[in-house]
Structure formats: C-alpha cells, structure tokens
Amino acid sequence: MRYSFYTGCSMEATAQANLKSIEAVAHALDLQLEEIPDWNCCGASVASGVVGDFTQQVMTGRNLAIAEPKGLDVVVGCSSCYLTLAVTNKRFQEDEHFKARANEALAAGGYHYDGTLRVRQFLEVVINDVGFEKVAQRVKRPLKGLKVAGYVGCQTVRAIPYEFDDPEYPVLLDRLMESLGAVATDFPMKARCCGSSNALAGTEIVVDSIHKIFDSADRGGAQVIATPCPMCQMNLDAYQRRVNKVHGTNFNMPILFFTQLMAIAFDLPPETWALKYNIVSPSAALASIGVSA
C-alpha cells in the first residue's frame, strides 16, 4: 500500500523518535511511505495567530498541491500537522470561495489544488488499513504485562470528529496496545489537552494540565504513556520534572510514541526503537517485561 507522507517539522527535530519508529513500523507492515518533495511547514500551533488562518491554510495547501498529482492518500505522523492538513483539505473540498481565493494565492508560486486527496493520521492507517489482527500476527516480542496508558490527546481524534474514533472517549489506541500484548489501563484523561504550545509563553498552564494527566495515568496503574502526538510527547516528557517540583509529586513515567512500542513488539532492530531521544528513561518499565533497553 502506497501513501504520500508529510513528515512535518517536529519529526526532524524534537520528535525524531516518532519519525524513526514510524518509518520502521511502516516498512514492517508493508506500508510504502513516499515523502512529499519540498514540503513546507504547515504552520501548526502558532502560525495562525501570527499571520492568520487564511495564510496558514494556503501554506498547508501548497503541500497538498505538491502531493495531488500522485493521487495517494496523504499520511501524517504529527497530530498538530494532521489537524492542520485535514482541516485545510476539508475546506478546499467544501468551501468554493475559499478554494478560489487560496488557489489564486497558490498560483503565485505555480501551484493549484483541486481538493481530491484524503488526509490521514498514521495511527488511523495502522488501525484501518492494516488492522489489529495483522498487527498481532507481526508481534514477535509481546509486551505481555506492560501497563500502558493510551494518550490520544486533544487533536488526533478531534481534527475531523468521528473520522476514525470517538472524539471524547477514544478506544482504538488502547485496542492497538492490546494487540501488542500490553495491558491498556483505565485513563479518563486520554483525550485531555496537554497545554500545547502554551509551553512557550505560559509554562504554568502546561505544568497544571499535565499534572492532571500524570495523576490520571498513575491512578490507573500505568507504567508507560503512549501517544501519537509529538507536542503531547514533548510536553509530558520535558516538563515531568517541573511537575514534580511544583506539585510535590514523584512521577517517573516514560512517554513513548505508540510506534516505538510497536517497533519493540515487532522485535525490530533496537535503533528503530529510538529510545535515546526520550528524556524519562523507559528502561525500568521495559525491564519489567524482560526487554533490555
């Protein structure tokens, strides 16, 4: 199965673990990801507040215009990028006035987008195009007994509500973790916002938000939090020590991309697990199920 692949900025910087594990898992599942050439930043998180929604969506539309001639579904690994591309794509498809104005702007660079593509999150592709049964068949090193809190975050399932999971009570990431042999823990905060880019100017907002998330995961007995979202992963990983200092807690919860756990369960080469990029080490949690990291 072939797809156009939009990597996005984060996966070449703070979320390299996401990119490395996605590429490895995709190869193992015979998913051919073809990177969109000369892609540009989609403007997720902050651009719309600086240059406005229209300019941001034209920026995003350029990526879709480049991908359109292939006619392949556009797969996105970053939840923020997925939100931006999916919403922009939907606007091209449903708002003729916007489409005309956006294509007028794109024409200045020699681009045009007709809105014929489908934008998809990599998590959704694994679930719907591969399926839980085939994922389970690929497992060679079951994560038996590992207690995982599946943290979907606020963007992945709300970009296009009900596109592939319930936006308020998502369950499919849990089912995917179970197909790897892990135990999906009770986690009421699985779709709660981590504070997103407030980390830049309102650190206290992020610290308060993720404290509640950690508390929820901890109460459910989780050893690891798994997420598809680079922003969620970075905030929870980077600010965990700050949470402990401010709230007097002692959380030591590894924050992994779900694809890192898939790479481990598939028994892919350890470099594809990309664990060296994690701030909070998952070594103890993985050692509990006999995995040396």
From TrEMBL:
Keyword tags: Oxidoreductase
GO molecular function, one term: oxidoreductase activity
Keyword S-adenosyl-L-methionine recorded: no
Ranges for domain Cysteine-rich: 4-85, 148-237
Protein name, entry field: Heterodisulfide reductase, subunit B
Organism: Desulfoscipio gibsoniae DSM 7213
